[in-house]
Amino acid sequence: MSSAPKKTVKKTTKKAVKAVKKKPQAPGADELKFMIDSAFERRTMLTPDEVEGSTRPTVERVISGLEQGEFRVAEPDGKGGWKVNEWLKKAVLLYFRVNDMQVVEADPAPFWDKVPARFEGYGEADFRKLGARVVPGAIARRGAYIGKDVVLMPSFVNIGAHVGEGTMVDTWATVGSCAQIGKHCHLSGGAGIGGVLEPLQASPTIIEDHCFIGARSEVVEGFVVGHHSVIGMGVFLGQSTRVYNRATGEISYGYVPPYSVVVSGQLPAKDGSHSLYCAVIVKQVDAKTMAKTSINELLRGLAD
């Protein structure tokens, strides 16, 4: 008697499928902008839970982006002008609202402030990665971008400022909040570059690439110094400063065009009774001349 054929049963093994947890994507610039705009609109009504839960982390993320050069309060618009990113100014203002006063450790004595030091906790590896030289006595606040090969002499750089690579910030020079300093500039001893936080739509003070700002000069109120310009010692430039072009006789405000050499001067009243301060564009030179000529030579013989 033949036995019935055995049925072979195929066992199927179920492979355990591991659920891959995706990390939540970090918010992009557009999302950060929306969150900052919303928080700023409600800044007087933010609850402690909102501050701790979303506002402070968002503001900290943006401030870190400013430090790393990911964001800039103002940036070239590609048409020879500048675009102001108002939401980044709002983030800077919110930083003061969401942070409490704290001890900022320093030698020989600590500070009491809402904004930590830019290089707080830095060691040798951090400074080597940064690639800038920070001389004793230099103070930079959190949220300031310091480019590669920058030299900070005993000076002050405020929150939101941008100092481009290769720039020298000389002794007692100050760079105000959100001020934009280009690449390979020289801010001479005691020069002051003013900060502009409010009004939000106002452009910050801007020094474009390859500029020289003379000792004890002041550039404030969102004034723009065009690239490769030389500003002589003791020149004051603000939105109300008359800028007289000696070659054309034109008077302008708020801007010095590229390759300008500027010194302080005076313009007489129409009735001749008095004269008032102005800045004088004594010459404009091309890139070739600028490259071959020292700063002192450019500033000599200007009374001719």
Automatic annotation (TrEMBL):
<dbReference type="Pfam" id="PF14805">
    <property type="entry name" value="THDPS_N_2"/>
</dbReference>
<keyword id="KW-0963">Cytoplasm</keyword>
<dbReference type="InterPro" id="IPR023180">
    <property type="entry name" value="THP_succinylTrfase_dom1"/>
</dbReference>
<dbReference type="InterPro" id="IPR037133">
    <property type="entry name" value="THP_succinylTrfase_N_sf"/>
</dbReference>
<keyword id="KW-0220">Diaminopimelate biosynthesis</keyword>
<feature type="binding site">
    <location>
        <position position="133"/>
    </location>
    <ligand>
        <name>substrate</name>
    </ligand>
</feature>
<feature type="compositionally biased region" description="Basic residues">
    <location>
        <begin position="7"/>
        <end position="24"/>
    </location>
</feature>
<keyword id="KW-0677">Repeat</keyword>
<keyword id="KW-0457">Lysine biosynthesis</keyword>
<dbReference type="GO" id="GO:0019877">
    <property type="term" value="P:diaminopimelate biosynthetic process"/>
</dbReference>
<keyword id="KW-0808">Transferase</keyword>
<dbReference type="InterPro" id="IPR001451">
    <property type="entry name" value="Hexapep"/>
</dbReference>
<dbReference type="GO" id="GO:0016779">
    <property type="term" value="F:nucleotidyltransferase activity"/>
</dbReference>
<keyword id="KW-0012">Acyltransferase</keyword>
<dbReference type="GO" id="GO:0009089">
    <property type="term" value="P:lysine biosynthetic process via diaminopimelate"/>
</dbReference>
<protein>
    <recommendedName>
        <fullName>2,3,4,5-tetrahydropyridine-2,6-dicarboxylate N-succinyltransferase</fullName>
        <ecNumber>2.3.1.117</ecNumber>
    </recommendedName>
</protein>
<comment type="pathway">
    <text>Amino-acid biosynthesis; L-lysine biosynthesis via DAP pathway; LL-2,6-diaminopimelate from (S)-tetrahydrodipicolinate (succinylase route): step 1/3.</text>
</comment>
<feature type="binding site">
    <location>
        <position position="170"/>
    </location>
    <ligand>
        <name>substrate</name>
    </ligand>
</feature>
<feature type="region of interest" description="Disordered">
    <location>
        <begin position="1"/>
        <end position="28"/>
    </location>
</feature>
<dbReference type="GO" id="GO:0008666">
    <property type="term" value="F:2,3,4,5-tetrahydropyridine-2,6-dicarboxylate N-succinyltransferase activity"/>
</dbReference>
<dbReference type="Pfam" id="PF14602">
    <property type="entry name" value="Hexapep_2"/>
</dbReference>
<comment type="subunit">
    <text>Homotrimer.</text>
</comment>
<comment type="similarity">
    <text>Belongs to the transferase hexapeptide repeat family.</text>
</comment>
<feature type="domain" description="Tetrahydrodipicolinate-N-succinyltransferase chain A">
    <location>
        <begin position="32"/>
        <end position="98"/>
    </location>
</feature>
<dbReference type="InterPro" id="IPR005664">
    <property type="entry name" value="DapD_Trfase_Hexpep_rpt_fam"/>
</dbReference>
<dbReference type="GO" id="GO:0005737">
    <property type="term" value="C:cytoplasm"/>
</dbReference>
<dbReference type="InterPro" id="IPR011004">
    <property type="entry name" value="Trimer_LpxA-like_sf"/>
</dbReference>
<keyword id="KW-0028">Amino-acid biosynthesis</keyword>
